[in-house]
Sequence to fold (117 residues):
Amino acid sequence: MEVLWRAKSPLSVAEVRSGLHTRSESLSYSTIKAVLNNLSQKGHVVKRSAGKSNVFAAATTRSEFESLVVSTVLSSLLRSYREPVIAHFVDELNADKEMLDQLERMIDQKRRRKGKQ
Fold:
C-alpha cells in the first residue's frame, strides 16, 4: 500500500515490485500480483486494464486504511478477549499521563454524546 500511496498514477505489478526497494528481491512478481489482486477484491485497491496488463492504485487514503485495519483487529480481539485487551490497553496508557488524560477526555466525550441521544 505504501508504494501505491506514494505514486502519482496507477502502477503495474512490476512498478510496485521495484518500488519496494530492498524487499523486492525476496518478493516474487506473482506474490505481489496476488496481494494486489486480494487488496482489489477487498476494495482497498482499484485495478484497471492497461493494454495487456493491469495497473493498480490505492482506493483509500492511508488514514482510512489504518482506521479500518485497527478497527478490524480490535473488534476481533474485543469479541474474544475483552477484559485482557482493555486491561492491557489501560496499562500501556498508564505509563504516559498525557495519553491516559486523552483517553479520559475521549470517554467523557462519548458519554456526553450518548447522553444527548
Observations:
- The beta strands are 45-50, 53-58.
- The longest helix spans residues 62-94.
